[in-house]
Amino acid sequence: MSLNILGHNYIGGQRSGEGDLHLHSIDATSGAIFEIPFVTATEKEVAAAVHAAEKAYPAFRATTSEQRAAFLDAIADEIDTLGDDFLAAVSRETALPATPRLAGERGRTSGQMRLFAKVLRRGDFYGARIDTALPERKPMARPDIRQYKIGVGPVAVFGASNFPLAFSVAGGDTAAALAAGCPVVFKAHTGHLVTSEIVADAIERAIKKTGMPAGTFNMIYGDRVGAQLVKSAAIQAVGFTGSLRGGRALCDMAAARPQPIPVFAEMSSINPIILMSEALKVRGDAIAKDLAGSVTMGCGQLCTSPGLLLGVKSPELTAFIEKLSAAFGGAVPATMLNSGGLSHYNSGVARLTQLPGVKVIATGGSSYTQAVPHLFKAEASLLFSKEAPLEEEVFGPSTVIVELESREQLIDFAANMHGQLTATLQAEIGDLQGNQDLIALLEQKAGRLLLNGYPTGVEVCDAMVHGGPYPATSDARGTSVGTLAIERFLRPVCYQNYPDAMLPVPLKNANPLGITRLVDGELTRATLG
Q1: pLDDT reported for residue 529
Q2: In this predicted model, what pLDDT tens digit does every residue of 448-486 receive, in sequence order?
Q3: In 125, 128, 277, 405, which residue has its Cα 20 to 30 A from 163's Cα atom?
Q4: What pLDDT sits at residue 1?
């Protein structure tokens, strides 16, 4: 594959580069600048991209679920053809290794598309519900009432920094929105501009191959185009993965619109791991080794990286901390996605270092140009501070361990901690039996509960939840990974007393798609009438 980079915005199936402000791709390791400039979208171009999506919406929504499934499969096929030179370009922009990391992420990205294609062919996303007429019901007859779900309209999606493929141009938000029948206006992340263009080209090829409307997918470049995008009247929902500050700003903009819209933002999580006594007795050494690997995986640049470790004071916990310290001492510095990420990480490490009651107990080497792994130990009192300093995410290869005085302290913290993407228990069966109240609290605080595993690594499947209460996300009812993600971009529509010939296909008596429907309170695939 030849990397033919133009650096222009994607609007309605065409390329546009009217602006005079430019961005440049930067080598994450050397700082070298890619010679081709990327043209920042002007206000006119942002408006044009939104208009293209708005214009495409009626025709794209009218496509059948099979047509959209074929479209997603075509995108997946195009992504799979992106070869070693593509992976090398992504690695250059992000410092992530081409193999196995980026090769695996490429497979995950195409796999997400194919998974949503399966959802479309299953038809359960329609959520079809039918209450047939009861003309003889007294004192009032019941009309025929039928409901299914449609795409909300054009969706704005913001690329994430840490997953240049799976949470980016053709990532989960884009896949879910397209599956729902919603055209996308994508804001490319400035940290991987070349990567974004190559993947956008793949989507455009799939659009042409499958005959989707021009404007089904649009992409704009720029540092400051996001606000205009979110405020555009035609945009009906937003998908975002990034910082708490950035996500909250988008939420506030969307809520202040004349027509408020939902923002599905994944923002901040420290993913606590609770270390139970029996587990430490049986597997303490192995947990220490694996936990250090989880914290430093991907240079700690994963939204599920464990940033807080909790255990009740015991000889087993003391021994575990010694083993964990040794494991961190054997870790090595690593290059982060970009210089800005390194600066933020170093600032977070400095903040923790300067907190009274916190001390560094292990580091993995030293470096001025790479992120150095850090293991901190903090006094339990800091967990209960109003400022919650230990619940502020430090994005990078560090974590904080806290030795609690009692189980009551653990319960108290769990009842009051911030919302999280994950909460993990390292526990044996005896630990679980004595901590059902703790588990009940964690259910209220996290989107995914893990037992004897590590939160880094998010399976893409029907049952996955990658979400959680604020500030982990802006809306705990959804997920950004897994097939439930499509629900964020759908809304229900009800039809009352419509003749069968005029009903949407999923609601027709004949049930030609063979989908499971809730008919008069019973799940069935049967025909009606």
Answers
A1: 82
A2: 999 999 999 999 999 999 999 999 999 999 999 999 999
A3: 125
A4: 41
Q: Find tokens 């303490």 and name the residue.
A: 284
| 299 belongs to the catalytic site | no
Contacts 24+ apart (CB under 8 A), 519-525: 519/129, 519/130, 519/132, 520/130, 520/131, 520/132
The strands making up 522-524's β-sheet, listed across from edge to edge, are 490-496, 145-151, 129-131, 517-519, 522-524
What is the chain's mean pLDDT, rounded? 97
Query: Where do the domains of the chain lie, and which CATH numbers do they carry?
Result: 10-267+480-487 (3.40.605.10), 273-451 (3.40.309.10)
Question: Pairing relation of β-strands 398-404 and 374-378?
Answer: parallel
> Which two tokens mark 128?
């079809």
Tens-place pLDDT, residues 142-158: 999 999 999 999 999 99
Using the predicted structure, report yes or no on whether residue 514 has a pLDDT greater than 50.
yes
Cβ contacts of 361 within 8 Å, gap of 6 or more: 321, 325, 375, 376, 377, 401
Q: Among the options 303, 316, 391, 393, which is catalytic?
A: 303
Listed in order, strand segments (DSSP E) in 222-357 are 237-241, 263-266, 273-275, 308-312
Identified catalytic residue from 78, 93, 105, 266: 266
Which residues share a beta bridge with 360? 376
113-130 burial string, b = 16+ CB within 10 Å, else e?
Answer: bbbbbebbebbebbbbbb
Residue 450: phi and psi, rounded to 5, are: -110, 145
Residue 251 is a catalytic residue: no
Which string of b and e fits 27-61 if b means at least 16 CB within 10 Å?
A: ebeeeeebebbbbbbbeebbbbbbbbbbbbbeebb
User: What type of residue is 152?
Assistant: V
| Beta carbons within 8 Å of 373's beta carbon, 6+ residues apart | 292, 295, 296, 300, 328, 331, 332, 333, 363, 364, 365, 397, 398
